[in-house]
Amino acid sequence: MYWPKFKQELFPGQQENERIYIVTRVHWIVLSYRLALWVMFAALLALGDWLVSAYIPILNTAPYVLYIDLLKAVYVMFLTLGLLIVWVMYYLNMQIITNERVVDITQKSLIHHTTSELHLSRIEDVTAEVSGIFGTFFDYGHVYVQTAAETERFIFHQVPNPQAINKLILDLYEQLPKEDKVKE
């Protein structure tokens, strides 16, 4: 049986000869902050069970136990949805740097995303910013890519190793032939 060769793309509009240098997402420490918040809400479920059994034991008898179980089931359903949203927003928000352009894919909600791209020839300035104790210690921050186009600034929020991303973009820009660079 013949299986057709499918074109494997990482992002929409990826060219056949386009070489991907880096795919970056929000730093893992930022994801861990969000997961810690989720764990706190999950711990509320266990705390609620303990409080009910310790201080309001009548709620563990019929018919109240049915209502409490229903509330817990709805709470667990929303907890699961919250975990799904945290993971989807982390996994689908990405920035991609290729030999031709910078692509920013922003997942705004579960069913809404935007894809912006910037050709390397349109770059005017790239800035890396690391701030705060955690940003300095774990080496994450923002990268700003300045252009003269309609979208004046691309922002990579809380990405790991912003100085390396900054250097990579500038090095790729410098490798472009002079005739491809946009005149100021």
How is this structure best described in words?
The chain is of the alpha+beta class. The chain has two domains: 20-25 and 96-176, PH-domain like (Roll), CATH 2.30.29; 32-88. The chain is built from four helices and seven strands; from the N terminus they run E-H-H-E-E-E-E-H-E-E-H. Helix 1 (28-55) packs antiparallel against helix 2 (64-92). The chain starts with 19 loop residues before the first strand and ends in a 9-residue tail after the last helix. The model has no long low-confidence stretch (mean pLDDT 88).
SSE layout and pairings?
Blueprint: E1 20-24, H1 28-55, H2 64-92, E2 94-98, E3 101-109, E4 112-119, E5 123-129, H3 133-138, E6 140-147, E7 153-160, H4 162-175
Antiparallel strand pairs: 1-2, 2-3, 3-4, 5-6, 6-7
Helix pairs in contact: 1-2
**Oligomeric nature of the chains:** single chain
Task: Report strand %.
Answer: 25-35%
Secondary-structure element order, N to C: EHHEEEEHEEH
CATH architecture of the largest domain: Roll
Major beta sheet summary: 4 strands, antiparallel
What name does the CATH topology of the largest domain carry?
PH-domain like
The whole-number mean of residue pLDDT values reads 88
Q: Count the helices. How many? A: 4
The CATH first-level class of the largest domain comes to Mainly Beta
Rg, Å, rounded: 24 Å
Classification by helices and strands: alpha+beta
Strand order of the largest sheet: 1-2-3-4
